[in-house]
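<given_protein>
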Amino acid sequence: MTASTSTSPNRRNPPDDGRADGNSQEGASRQQRQPAAASASHRLQAYISRYFIHPHISLLAAAAGTFTLIESVYWASTSPVEMLGTMLLALRFAAIVSFVLRPKPGSCLVVVSQILDLLTSVSTPTTMLITSLIAVGVASFLDARLGGALGALLVAAALAGMIIHHDSAMHRGGILSFVAFVLIAFGAGLLTRLNTRHRAQELQNLALRRNALIAQRLHDYTTNDMNNIIMLADLTLDGDSDHDSAETIQLIRSNALNALTQTRQAILALRDDGEAQCPSHMAGKPSDLRTHLIQLVDEQQEMLDRLGFTGTVFVSSPFPETDTQHAPLIMGLVKELFGNIARHAAPDGGYVMTICASDEECDLSLSDTPAGIQRQPQGQGDAKGLGSGMRHYREQIEALHGQWHIEQTADSWTLETRIPWDSKTTPRAE
């Protein structure tokens, strides 16, 4: 196995201004395209929600109610005019309109209208029976107890109608079919309710995972970049740096641009309410990962060199040609380790980091010298860390059946971790 050794930090030039401007223009163009479509969609949703609490239920109620009203009007026009029939027709119309606009109370009115139809001598349109069953299903979807009560009332009214009217359709087994349909409507509404709740919980969990990913990206990149800016600024202001101040300012600008880019990506992910996407340099094959790791190492070593640190990083070559989903984890961990060196290690103590990969796993280790309680890293007096970075990575790696081991003494701090490419791999024995 060959090793790529990075001991000199001056291997990566500062980012080109044209590239930064291009990224800014692309982000601005995207932000200009999105508000128009989003605004129109939000206006339409607001308009629908203003008049319809449950749009999909209202659409179903409108479809069933339209056929019911058409059949009811046809029956009324071909039958002798009766006061009772006219009153029931008016009640049926009011119940359907209420069902469309306010499904929960409307379903109660539809069932009441159907109960009166069953108990009186007025013929009931077949579509009204179907609409009443839909009302039971909708009621059980919105409120299981209400749906059960309405279904029980319908069955009781059907039994009473069968007793009162000898020519009722409930005779000759009709009541059994009606009870079965009521049970099916109630069960369908209840199952839809449970499925909707389960889906809502899945969406909530997805949103939590997405937000956690965004928070981790902000921690890994934005927070560490801002911390580097603070330390470089303090170093320049104190006049302790042996490097040209213009180069230090250029490095500060580079870190600021990186932090700004990551912040914009997080804002766009939250605004779009979609999946947070990892930067393109954090995905791909391990062979691509090695290239990006070397770029990251060069960048971070240049930063540490400005702060007075000296050390060595070994990156094995070549990386295995197998796909991996853990590239963001490895890149983020390396970034976090460099940030920890800057915050907690002694500049004159040196550090050694190794990143090796096999067909089964990626091994990463770091050794440095703790700075001690007396030394407070530059720039840390005004900005305290959350202390959650390393703990988060340990939890992630252990969840993948990897290994995480830290040894610490008064004059040394060592981390050894193994990340399997396949998360189902059993941890290798020490």
